[in-house]
């Protein structure tokens, strides 16, 4: 009887130890990114002088702004290490603004529609549409965007893939792209 109670106590202690372990967190870098330009202005360097036909997916900088005639947004794609239904939490961490913003900015993060795109071909005419699911984050002058919880967006991935837009309702900001060696990353925790 004593042996049975000792074994039971040991099993309970082992179970408590297993359940007390924190869920593993995985760092996931962006797999692709591009600046999407939508403009009614003329861009002589673009096909047919149409800004919407230029591709900006291989540069070292991404930008976001909203002007009178032009809107730029960063489109960033990720591939999760497992199905989105297994995501417990998912935080987006962006590289620092470059250059630092001397005024406060609002950063908008929205899910893009599930549509395949490549850095070499995506432009203002064929980019995925924006879905409404997202968040706004106010960033004070001379600060960077903190890690932002985008768990709901990560959970809605299809075939482990999803894309987000980073945009601004006004003031322009820029940050490094994955080609700079400093991509946006996710900190993803899985249900255990």
UniProtKB/TrEMBL annotation:
It is found in: Secreted. GO terms for cellular component: extracellular region. Residues 1-20 form the signal peptide. InterPro entries: CBM96 (IPR055372). This is Carbohydrate-binding module family 96 domain-containing protein. Residues 55-188 form the Carbohydrate-binding module family domain. The keyword Protease does not apply. Pfam families: CBM96. Its main location: secreted. Keywords: Secreted, Signal. The lineage of its organism: Eukaryota, Fungi, Fungi incertae sedis, Zoopagomycota, Kickxellomycotina.
